[in-house]
Amino acid sequence: MKIDVLALFPEIVAPALKTGILKRVQDTAKLTVNLHNLRDWATDKHKSVDDYPYGGGAGMILKPEPIFAAVATLNPRETAHIIYLTPQGIPLTQGLAESLSLETHLILLCGRYKGVDERVRDKLVTTEISIGDYVLSGGEIAALVLIDAVGRVLPGALGDYESAHVDSFSQDLLDHPHYTRPAEFAGMHVPEVLLSGHHENIEKWRYAEALKRTAKHRPDLLQKLELSEEDIAILKAAGLVEPTK
Ligand code: 6GU
């Protein structure tokens, strides 16, 4: 996969590409990331990339000409999937990251200021994506989040050890608690069941903890699942569901 990032501050993205899984996935040629400064396609002598909004109001708008020129260079055969990172986009989810990982060429357009001229959206952009319901000062960090989420699910990106050991329920629930040595630290003890070596009981405990944590932090995720009688009993015992009348 090739990812071209088109941004006013591409240097925000650069350092994170040099570490960890993202570095490895690039080293093994499964992913190439090219960073581009939109200003390189500015046409006037002041290299301006933004201008005042028609109709008035606060803030600046990214001009169409540099973006169209950049995309003409980066996407001459018009085969790329062009993503505009904006709080107005559809939410980035694990499912969306996994489907994007099947593409061969992504162009990530990072917004700044009040965003892009609408004609960029109309003519160039394939998909608008947001990384959550809050406002960032620009799309660069969101692009980095997307690159990380997509990069780590490219075939062969994760080592055997990283991709093995997934719990049967890990798709639908938040993760269960984890502990490592020592078994007692500052008077705090690791739950006895984890030291027991009883794999069935360990699995049951992890499932119950994941279920309770999900009910507490993300009840919206539980709503999408069919809870069993046993699930409901676990949540009731923890005071996390109302007793049904
Ligand atoms: Cl993609 N961009 C900006 N500027 N803010 C955001 C975002 C994107 N996603 C959430 N907030």
Please give a structural write-up.
It is a single chain. This protein is 35% helix and 17% strand. The chain has 245 residues and is α/β, with parallel strands linked by helices. The chain has two domains: 2-151, 3-Layer(aba) Sandwich (Alpha/beta knot), CATH 3.40.1280.10; 184-237, tRNA(m1g37)methyltransferase, domain 2 (Trp Operon Repressor, Chain A, Orthogonal Bundle). A five-stranded parallel sheet has the order 2-1-6-5-7. Strand 1 (2-7), helix 1 and strand 2 (32-37) form a beta-alpha-beta unit. The protein starts with a strand and ends in an 8-residue tail after the last helix. The chain binds 6-chloroguanine (6GU). The site of 6-chloroguanine (6GU) has 13 residues, from strand 5. The site of 6-chloroguanine has 13 residues, from strand 5.
How would you describe this structure in keywords?
245 residues, alpha/beta, Alpha/beta knot, Trp Operon Repressor, Chain A, 2 domains, five-stranded parallel β-sheet, binds 6-chloroguanine
Kindly state the number of beta strands: 9
CATH-defined topology of the largest domain: Alpha/beta knot
Largest beta sheet, briefly?
A: 5 strands, parallel
How many helices does DSSP assign? 10
Q: β content, as a range? A: 15-25%
CATH superfamily of the largest domain: SPOUT methyltransferase, trefoil knot domain
Indicate the overall shape: elongated
The strand order across the widest sheet is 2-1-6-5-7
Amino- and carboxy-terminal Cα gap: 54 Å
Amount of helix: 25-40%
Rounded average pLDDT: 95
Look at the helices and sheets and give the structural class. alpha/beta
By CATH reckoning, the class of the largest domain would read: Alpha Beta
- CATH architecture type of the largest domain: 3-Layer(aba) Sandwich
The number of domains is 2
Order of helices and strands: EHEEEHEHEHEHHEEHHHH
